[in-house]
Amino acid sequence: MLKLYAFDRSPFGWKVRVALAEKKVKYDMIVPENKNEDPAFAKLNPFRKTPVLVLDDGRTIYESTVINEYLEEVHAQPPMLPKDPYERARVRMIEDTFDQYVYPAIRDFTNSQFDYQPPILYRKKADKVDHKLLEESRIRVHEHLQRLEAELKGRTWFGGDVFSLADAALVPALTGSLKILGVLPDAKYPNIGAWIGRVTARPTYKASAPKEPPTIKEA
Ligand SMILES: N[C@@H](CCC(=O)N[C@@H](CS)C(=O)NCC(=O)O)C(=O)O
What we know:
The protein is α/β, with parallel strands linked by helices and 219 residues long. The protein folds into two domains: 2-74, Glutaredoxin (3-Layer(aba) Sandwich); 85-217, Glutathione S-transferase Yfyf (Class Pi), Chain A, domain 2 (Up-down Bundle). It has helices at 11-22, 39-44, 64-74, 85-111, 131-151, 165-180, 190-201, 203-208, and strands spanning 2-5, 27-30, 52-54, 60-62, 114-117, 120-123, 215-217. A four-stranded mixed sheet has the order 2-1-3-4, covered by helices on one side. It has a three-stranded mixed sheet with strand order 5-6-7, with no helix packed on it. It is globular, with a radius of gyration of 18 Å. Residues 7, 10-12, 48-51, 63-65, 99 line the site of glutathione (GSH).
């Protein structure tokens, strides 16, 4: 059986679990211990990041986007990429720009105001908050949400009629971290709000969501 090395709360692990659940692929999830020191983990992924997918013959795939593309190739049903080449590129742009730009904005927004000791986000005292980074990242987060809101105009999913690899990539942020941080839901983003309702109603949502999500502890 496939093995997935991932953390319960990791957004990138969650994204892969969504694709595995959608495609009804069975796997064992392993939470790595001491991954930064354990030489065995470096053999799975020299960059020592999770998630890592281990195939039945022991070969490994790391980088969540690459893992999900592999799953799409090997388990074609249900398709998580539209048929039209431009639409496929559009889905991939949404996924790739999430990893490159949206995730760092959310990370800055979080780290500027919280100390994270999983699973608790401890709110920093006012004099420890990086106010400049907080305000800068808040603007970036909302710019991304405006763009994603527009992508959903007239579409059920980011993949149009197809619940896509981009939808899987956005599940952790839009239904997880941005909700915990109090950014979503927001009446300014009705399409995203409706998308969240549809995503969380999917049976695959429960199967892939963290068992113990982060919680905020006020200062
Ligand atoms: N680009 C990578 C990012 C993976 C990543 O940042 N994983 C986090 C968990 S969410 C991790 O392993 N962090 C621990 C570390 O950086 O040491 C992917 O998409 O898989």
